[in-house]
Amino acid sequence: MLRSPTDSKRQPGEQGSDAPEVSVIVPARNEEDCLGACLQSIVTQDAVDFEVIVVDDDSTDRTREIASSFANVQVVHAAPLRPGRTGKSNALATGATHARGTGLLFTDADTVHLPGSLGRTVLEAQAHHAALLSYSPAQEVHGFWEKAIMPVVFAELTATFRTEDVNDPASPVAAANGQYLFIRRDVYESIGGFASLSQSLLEDVDLARAVKRAGYPVYFRFGGDAVRTRMYRNFADLRQGWTKNLALLFPSPGQLAIKRALEFLVVLVGTTTALIAALKNAPGLAVSAGALAATLYALFLRRIRRAHFGWDANLLAIFGLPVFVLLLRRSQLSHRRGAIVWKGRTYGGRAFPAQKPGDMRAEAVGAHRSGT
Questions:
Q1: pLDDT tens-digit profile of 54-75?
Q2: Is 124 a domain residue?
Q3: FRET label pair with 291: which of 88, 124, 151, 173, CA 20 to 30 Å apart?
Q4: Are residues 123 and 271 in the same domain?
Q5: Which residue range forms the structural domain that includes residue 158?
Q6: pLDDT tens per residue, range 82-109
């Protein structure tokens, strides 16, 4: 059952014999548009004893009011953000210090949890002997740009973070999605938790890497049967969010940008050439150019379909391909300049060392990356 935080007189973070099985920790900074639906989907979970903690990260909207409207949700303030630390890592670390559960589920405020998913998560982690279990949620996309761009990004992530590599203890490849990350408390504490990742802008992947380096099993999969999310609600947030992350997610972002730009150009030029040749009664050229464009598009579409989006988004993804290239390049340049803006905060400069694109991923992916 859902246990109220006031049921215990223990200090924050202290465990006991009546500790809940899971502490669900939701970091929230100006999330009034989605937090209510997220919490409603969490507090109605069953089959496991749990508590819910919302970490208000200096919100200026109704985030705290919405969280406080749920009787069994504990709302805490994020610890003061020191220079050189990222806001989300700080909020996550704060939530963990207040948690009493033997397992910790870190989940974003823009997620919606399917009925019974929390209990199934605990059972699945036990079945796979996973110290850390993470799901990549089903992505909700609305409007042209979300449908065009998001499948391209997630297709690349699927190809880079192959689940068979992530779930292989012998492989150095590690991945996790911070939108849904479940970890044993003892393991979390033994590796230093998010407090040890205070400068990370890719805290979910870094935590998974730390877990794997410590010798603990990681289990990662697409979790559309457990959780869904709409990451970005407008193009401005989409651009800003992927500018923060893209260059850190791929070991060679510059090479990937060139590869995908060439892919788009060949499809575009091949299709255009085939149409012009057909109009000018040059069947040989039309067939050759059309076959080349069709072959590359078929390969592109096969890659996109692995990202678990609807048919309409899959078809629009070809138009998102050049935008992905521009976002990847923008991310790379922003990290080089040390000027990353997210949630009203700027990371970079003397107080916050800029993270070099690709450094976080190159070592882990290099030995096992299969190519795309």
A1: 999 999 999 999 999 999 999 9
A2: yes
A3: 151
A4: no
A5: 5-237
A6: 888 899 999 999 999 999 999 999 999 9
